[in-house]
Design brief:
The chain is an alpha/beta fold. Helix content is 51%, strand content 14%.
Length: 296
């Protein structure tokens, strides 16, 4: 397939690397030096000097951008992708976007005969590099079937959840629950450490008990107990995702006191820790407040 890929961030790069081995790929990034560096590593990949160049003969466009607003900006105007996409093409949006924007984008594309699937992913850069991402899809049966072929190089699990917007709703709630787990473990592990319990033993017991989670099983052992703290996903983006889940709850008239409180806590952390903070930095903040370090 001839594919244009927009968004070479921490997650987008390994996704595009996987696509480059299977499809005829063109890449574009708002910071053009990143796209240039990618093409230098993959000479078979074409450099799109402008967003519209992604649409040149493309069967599909894959977007992996910070928010739905950037996706709409990519489409807009005479220099945007939409004006140059052929009828019958498909946009596969792997951005962690919001359902309302997805439905609006899909309607605009449909008017030009272009399909749309919201297809956010879960698993992070290491899983993307291994081709093991989970892809959460919203769209028609036909469009999702076509999207499966597009995302196959980086996906281990592709789930069709419903109409356009369903994928982004699923991703927002997933990430909101991830944030709740991070906040709860920040409190619980610093509490146990200050009580004199060895952090490694505490985590081992949690992971053999009912309090375990992905955060305790994977993230804490790999990044907290080791003290390595790799910068994998910006806290600001996770705070954005919790906000999408909170807005969805309001739209559906569902009470969400736990998620709403998590959002406020992440807003506070974003304000105090800054836009470049990592999503696990609330654990570091809890350590500093308690005067302990959760290390193995």
């Amino acid at each position: 397939m001839r594919i244009g890929f927009a968004g070479l961030g921490a997650l987008g790069v390994p996704m595009a690397e996987r696509l480059a081995t299977t499809h005829d790929l063109a890449v574009w990034n708002r910071t053009s030096s990143r796209a240039q560096a990618f093409v230098e590593r993959f000479p078979n990949v074409r450099l799109a000097s402008a967003a519209r160049d992604l649409a040149d003969g493309a069967d599909a466009i894959v977007t992996c951008l910070p928010t739905s607003a950037e996706v709409e900006a990519l489409l807009d105007g005479p220099e945007g992708v939409l004006a140059h996409l052929r009828a019958g093409a498909l946009v596969v949006d792997c951005t962690s976007g919001d359902p309302d924007s997805s439905r609006r984008i899909a309607a605009r594309l449909a008017a030009s005969g272009v399909g749309f699937v919201d297809a956010p992913v879960s698993g992070g850069p290491p899983m993307a590099a291994a081709g093991q991402l989970t892809v959460m899809c919203g769209g028609t049966e036909e469009d999702v079937a076509r999207a499966r072929e597009v995302v196959a190089p980086f996906a281990a699990k592709v789930v069709h959840l419903g109409p356009v917007g369903a994928g982004h709703a699923m991703k927002a709630v997933n990430n909101a629950l991830l944030a709740v787990n991070i906040l709860a473990l920040a409190e619980g592990l610093t509490m146990l450490t200050k009580a004199g319990i060895a952090p490694r033993e505490a985590v081992d017991v949690l992971n053999a008990s009912s309090g375990r989670s992905f955060v305790s099983e994977a993230l804490v052992p790999e990044r907290v107990l080791t003290g390595t703290w790799p910068r994998m996903f910006r806290l600001a983006l996770l705070e954005k995702d919790i906000g999408i889940a909170h807005d969805l709850a309001a739209e559906l008239r569902i009470a969400d006191p736990v998620l709403a409180h998590a959002r406020e806590l992440y807003r506070m952390h974003r304000a105090s820790l800054g836009e470049s903070a990592d999503y696990l930095d609330p654990i570091r903040a809890a350590e500093a407040a308690a005067g302990v370090e959760v290390r193995g």
